[in-house]
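Most newcomers find our protein records easier to grasp once they have seen one. Read left to right, the backbone structure tokens trace the chain's path through space. Nothing more is needed to start thinking about how sequence determines fold. An example says more than a description, so a record of this kind follows:
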Amino acid sequence: MLVSLAYMKISFTLMLVVGFAASSLSNAADITGVITFKGTPPPEKEIVPLENDPTCGALHTEKPYTHFYAVDASGGLGDVVVSLSVTGKSTGATAAPAVLDQKGCLYVPSILAVQTGQKIVVKNSDPCIHNVHTVSKNGNDQHNDAQMAGGPDLTYTFDKPEDFMKFQCDVHPWMFAWVTIEDSPYFSLSGKDGSFTIKNVPPGKYTITASHRKLGKETLDVEVKDSDVKVEFPPFAVK
């Protein structure tokens, strides 16, 4: 009889926990939107030093250009980090690793967003040596590691939130990538058409920020209740 009662108590407790988790998940909502650009973006610059490098230039069949303003035909703006005003909720330790490749003597992608504690795996897909040099303005660990052609991947994690931390290659000084580090999973990077989705946001009032490395930031107040929310930022423009 005592065993039966104990079993009933455990079962009831498990039901409460599962029910609470299911309720929390059902109340979560997605925040969606499209980031846009107004006007004509500045022209991208031809990367002449890359073309003139015997090894790197041979990896391109077309002229290489910078990729600072990813604007599509409809004005959608890509590579914008959209994040909520949430800290201390990182799930980075269990998140899938993010990948940063060195391909054609360029970093691919050039803009990346991860969580604190999330692994960043850096690959070298080129037939030449690179070095991965991270430059932090917010107290994150700095690294400067050589990576041979065909060499093993390098893996990094960072503990502090930071906007657009620089990755650079000192061997090829035109090579840069910028990694934003968030302290929660509530962020997104806008796609080629400017669209973004921040998934499974708990109910509450937040500040939502859209950050572009060249064009600055736009912020809005947003409230999440029990259904998906669509937000509309003012268009970005060259200031």
About this structure: The domain at 29-231 is CATH 2.60.40.420 (Immunoglobulin-like).
